[in-house]
Write a structure and sequence with these properties.
Length: about 230
């Protein structure tokens, strides 16, 4: 791995080569990672998660700290507390991160942020000195109920019934979620609740399913067969 990295990057460490890993080395490593980054995003952190150490180091270094807004579970207690105390910016989608940096902007005016998908992510962000096109997230939330009704109507009227594909090489969690999702849009929280699968695992699985063209992501973190 080190040989591969030297061709396109660098190995940075405060310890000599071939030093055996020890648990207390990781905070020191993460201090370097946060120092080399513009910001740090906490995906999930319990009350005593090591991710919070990295977040604290990033704050000391003057970096932006973000936290994915999670449900009220022990796995999200630490990250949600950071949001409540104001030491982390709440994040629900990648545009929340882009909006925090004035040197990032979107160059494609045709992107529809109400229907953003994995296919669009390759176009964002683009670094440069131009104007940042702000995501209309606040407008979207204000009109969310009306949009959901219209979206459901479009899918109900225009999409034909799609059947599940068979003999797919999916892991157990992804297969279970794929079998659950059907021709009616379903929210990620309902998937998690009905199948008793943590939201972070559902998010990983639906991302995989979307990349394989098996499901479609709709606005508001809802999913439907594709």
């Amino acid at each position: 791995m080190r040989e591969a990295i030297t061709k396109r990057g660098a190995v940075i460490s405060e310890y000599p080569p071939d030093e055996s890993p020890r648990g207390y080395y990781f905070p020191a490593r993460n201090r370097l990672i946060s120092a080399l980054s513009d910001g740090v995003l906490i995906i999930e952190a319990s009350a005593k998660s090591g991710s919070l150490i990295t977040a604290s180091l990033a704050l000391e270094q003057g970096k932006e700290v973000f936290a994915l807004l999670g449900n009220n579970s022990p796995q999200n207690e630490g990250s949600n507390n950071r949001i409540k105390e104001g030491s982390a910016i709440p994040v629900t989608d990648f545009m929340d991160i882009l909006n925090a940096f004035d040197n990032l902007y979107v160059t494609d005016d045709s992107l529809d942020f109400n229907e953003i998908s994995l296919e669009d992510i390759n176009a964002v962000p683009v670094k440069g000195g131009g104007h940042f096109v702000k995501s209309p997230a606040s407008d979207f939330r204000a009109e969310q109920n009306e949009i959901h009704i219209k979206s459901n109507s479009v899918h109900n009227n225009s999409k034909k019934e799609i059947k599940h594909k068979q003999n797919l090489d999916l892991n157990k969690t992804a297969q279970k979620i794929y079998d659950y999702i059907n021709n009616e849009p379903v929210h990620i929280d309902k998937i998690s609740s009905d199948l008793n699968i943590p939201v972070f695992k559902v998010l990983t699985a639906v991302t995989t399913l979307e990349m394989q063209g098996l499901i479609e992501a709709l606005q508001g973190r809802r999913y439907i067969l594709k």
